[in-house]
C-alpha cells in the first residue's frame, strides 16, 4: 500500500451495519457499492476539474470505482467491506484513453515541479463531507434494497 494512500475509517455506523447485514449477500454488496460510488462522485468531479489539460487524454481517464472483491479488500483491511476509489491515468484497451503521465504530474519529476490535482480533490474542504454523504447514501441504498428483498420474498 502506498504511503500516500488516503485511508479513512468510519465509526458510528452500527445501526446501518445491522440493517445492511439483514440484506441478502448480493443486495448487501450492491447497496454498499452504490453508496460508495455516489459518495465519491463529487470527489471525482473535483479531480476532473483540477486535471491539467494538454491533449485532454488525462481528463478522459478519470474513473470512479467501488468494489467488494475479497482480493482487493484483504489488501487494505480485515474489516473493510467495500472500497471506493478514484483512478486517473489507468491503462485501457483503447490506447487513446491511456495517460501514463498522471503520476508525474501529481508528484513531479527531477525536471518538473509537482502539479497535485488528485490529492487536492481529497483534501478540499468541500470533500470532507464525503463520509457524511456516504452515510446518507448507504441509508438510502439499504432502504431501496430492503424493498427489493421484500419483493423477492413475496414471490
Strands, helices and their partners?
Elements: H1 14-21, H2 25-50, H3 57-60, E1 63-67, H4 70-76, E2 83-87, H5 102-107, H6 118-123, H7 130-154
Antiparallel strand pairs: 1-2
- Total tally of structural domains: 1
Give the integer mean of the pLDDT values.
79
Based on secondary structure, the structural category is mainly alpha
> Strand tally, please?
2
Question: What portion of residues belong to β-strands?
Answer: 5-15%
Structural commentary:
With 155 residues, the protein is mainly α. The chain has one domain. Helices cover 53% and strands 6% of the residues. The protein has 7 helices and 2 strands; from the N terminus they run αααβαβααα. A two-stranded antiparallel sheet has the order 1-2. Helix 2 (25-50) runs antiparallel to helix 7 (130-154). The termini are far apart.
In short:
This protein has helices at residues 14-21, 25-50, 57-60, 70-76, 102-107, 118-123, 130-154, and strands at 63-67, 83-87.
Q: Top keywords for this entry?
A:
single chain, 155 residues, mainly alpha, two-stranded antiparallel ribbon, 6% strand
Amino acid at each position: 500500500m502506498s504511503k500516500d494512500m488516503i485511508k479513512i475509517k468510519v465509526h458510528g455506523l452500527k445501526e446501518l451495519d445491522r440493517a445492511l447485514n439483514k440484506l441478502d449477500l448480493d443486495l448487501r454488496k450492491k447497496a454498499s457499492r452504490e453508496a460508495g460510488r455516489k459518495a465519491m462522485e463529487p470527489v471525482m468531479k473535483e479531480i476532473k476539474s483540477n486535471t491539467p489539460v494538454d491533449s485532454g487524454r488525462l481528463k478522459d481517464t478519470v474513473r470512479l470505482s467501488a468494489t467488494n472483491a475479497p482480493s482487493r479488500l484483504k489488501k487494505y483491511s480485515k474489516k473493510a467491506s467495500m472500497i471506493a476509489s478514484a483512478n486517473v491515468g489507468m491503462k485501457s484497451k483503447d490506447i487513446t484513453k491511456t495517460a501514463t503521465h498522471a503520476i508525474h504530474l501529481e508528484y513531479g519529476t527531477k525536471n518538473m515541479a509537482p502539479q497535485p490535482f488528485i490529492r487536492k480533490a481529497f483534501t478540499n474542504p468541500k470533500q470532507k463531507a464525503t463520509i457524511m454523504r456516504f452515510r446518507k447514501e448507504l441509508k438510502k441504498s439499504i432502504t431501496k434494497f430492503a424493498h427489493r428483498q421484500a419483493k423477492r420474498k413475496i414471490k
